[in-house]
Design a protein that fits this description.
Blueprint (H helix, E strand, L loop, with lengths): L2 E6 L11 H4 L4 H12 L4 E6 L3 H14 L2 E5 L8 H9 L3 E6 L21 E4 L4 H12 L2
Parallel strand pairs: 1-2, 1-3, 3-4, 4-5
The structure holds 1,3,4-trihydroxy-5-OXO-cyclohexanecarboxylic acid.
The site of 1,3,4-trihydroxy-5-OXO-cyclohexanecarboxylic acid has 10 residues, from loops.
Length: 142
């Protein structure tokens, strides 16, 4: 069964209580459960979260080496991290970038993604469904 890694960056451990007007009340554990149910026996879903940039870099290296596909919500690092961008391209990781919120409808500093040029695609603005749409995209792509 193919493995799909769902990598989450800083502050996403606070989902459920963090700015619910923007991010809703769904927790990361709820998102993991929904993804596992949706994947069924089509893929093994493994979800990880870290507030540290280096952990995300190392997990992207692992994914690239293992040929595992990745759903990545890099959170604030999306907008700042050359290290994550280099990790994705250096490890040849197959990544879909996701965001719960529509980053383009928010502050200007969220409009730019450092990683968008090196990922397969970007899905944002659909809340937890952003992750599920990314899962479907990964499962239907070669
Ligand atoms: C986010 C959007 C980012 O701008 C923000 O820093 C986050 C969450 C989202 O899922 O909407 O932490 O990635």
């Amino acid at each position: 069964m193919p493995e799909i890694l769902v990598l989450n960056g800083p502050n996403l451990n606070l989902l459920g209580t963090r700015e619910p007007g923007i991010y809703g009340s769904t927790t990361l554990a709820d998102i993991e459960q929904r993804l596992k149910e949706r994947a069924g026996d089509r893929a093994a879903v493994v979800l990880r979260q870290s507030n540290n940039e280096g952990d995300l870099v190392s997990w992207l290296h692992e994914a690239g080496a293992a040929g595992a596909k990745v759903i990545l919500n890099a959170a604030a690092y999306t907008h700042t991290s050359i290290a994550l961008r280099d990790a994705i391209s250096g490890a040849k990781a197959h990544v879909i970038e996701v965001h719960l919120s529509n980053v383009h409808a928010r502050e200007e500093f969220r409009h730019h993604s450092m990683i968008a040029p090196v990922v397969k695609g970007v899905i944002c603005g659909f809340g937890p469904l952003s992750y599920e749409l990314a899962l479907e995209a990964l499962l239907s792509a070669d």
